[in-house]
């Protein structure tokens, strides 16, 4: 797809995120909106993932390690025809397969259940290693939140990825600088990120996480002998003016009026 087509898909998926979180009455709009451009690029441009090949051992694998941003993955899966779009309105409802965090046992297209921060990243490392051991093709792409990388399991996994030279293992950090109840620099500073990942033996690439040219350029810089981490500079709540860079929108649903304003902004 060209850049314009990806921008159109991303805009529409942003509206789907707002609508399904509003309908649920709960959820995490800020982090879902910050990561949706990267999710769009991966599902509709980069990865060989489809309903038809989801059991193919040589497929790419996607893991949303920051599982609270599940709406971003769900709207992409619906767009990819893993389930009907109308099912998005069952988000977080009792008995729904669209739980608050992705569940591999319930949701079609979800490879790994996530929610406990760092869990998806460590699972991804194991899957990338198993692909190597079995001489399988396909990469493992894992999206992490920048608050999430305060977890020790993330750095244990980073050591393992480098040790086993997992050049099929790609971490993407949604660097929006806001976590659950504040800014990362105030709660637990994670900078200097580039230097830290370099010291752990990773290939480090940076990009603008809302610009498809920049995103594409980053994903074309994977290393042939190392795992790669892409530090994507993003904005929490991107696309909705009153949500952008606003701590208050980490985990709260919009009111009907706020939902209507958001959809109107995204429809311009």
UniProtKB/TrEMBL annotation:
Alphabetical keyword list: Metal-binding, Thiamine pyrophosphate, Transferase
Signal peptide: none
Domain Transketolase N-terminal: 17-258
Single GO term (MF): metal ion binding
Record flagged with keyword Metal-binding: yes
SUPFAM superfamilies: Thiamin diphosphate-binding fold (THDP-binding)
Keyword Disulfide bond included in the entry's annotation: no
Cofactors that this protein relies on: thiamine diphosphate
A Pfam family this chain is assigned to: Transketolase_N
Assigned protein family: Belongs to the transketolase family.
Name of this chain's protein: Transketolase N-terminal domain-containing protein
Species: Clostridium thermobutyricum
Phylogenetic lineage: Bacteria, Bacillati, Bacillota, Clostridia, Eubacteriales
């Amino acid at each position: 797809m060209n850049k314009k087509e990806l921008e159109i898909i991303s805009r529409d998926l942003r509206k789907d995120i707002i609508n399904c979180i509003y309908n649920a009455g709960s959820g995490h709009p800020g982090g879902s909106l910050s990561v949706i451009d990267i999710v769009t690029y991966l599902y509709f441009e980069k990865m060989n993932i489809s309903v038809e090949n989801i059991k193919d051992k040589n497929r790419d694998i996607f893991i949303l390690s920051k599982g609270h941003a599940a709406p971003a993955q769900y709207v992409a899966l619906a767009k990819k025809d893993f389930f009907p779009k109308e099912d998005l309105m069952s988000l977080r409802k009792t008995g729904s397969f669209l739980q608050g965090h992705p569940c591999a046992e319930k949701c079609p297209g979800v490879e790994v259940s996530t929610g406990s921060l760092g869990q998806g990243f460590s699972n991804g490392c194991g899957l990338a290693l198993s692909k190597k051991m079995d001489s399988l093709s396909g990469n493992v792409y894992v999206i992490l939140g920048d608050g999430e990388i305060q977890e020790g399991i993330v750095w244990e996994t980073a050591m393992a990825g480098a040790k086993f030279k997992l050049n099929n293992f790609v971490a993407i950090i949604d660097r929006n600088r806001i976590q659950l109840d504040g800014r990362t620099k105030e709660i637990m500073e994670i900078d200097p990120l580039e230097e830290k990942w370099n010291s752990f033996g990773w290939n480090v690439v940076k990009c603008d996480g809302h610009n498809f040219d920049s995103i594409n350029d980053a994903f074309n810089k994977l290393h042939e002998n190392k795992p790669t981490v892409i530090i994507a500079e993003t904005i929490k709540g991107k696309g909705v003016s009153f949500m952008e860079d606003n701590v208050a929108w980490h985990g709260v649903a919009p009111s009907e009026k706020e939902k209507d304003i958001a959809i109107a902004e995204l429809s311009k």
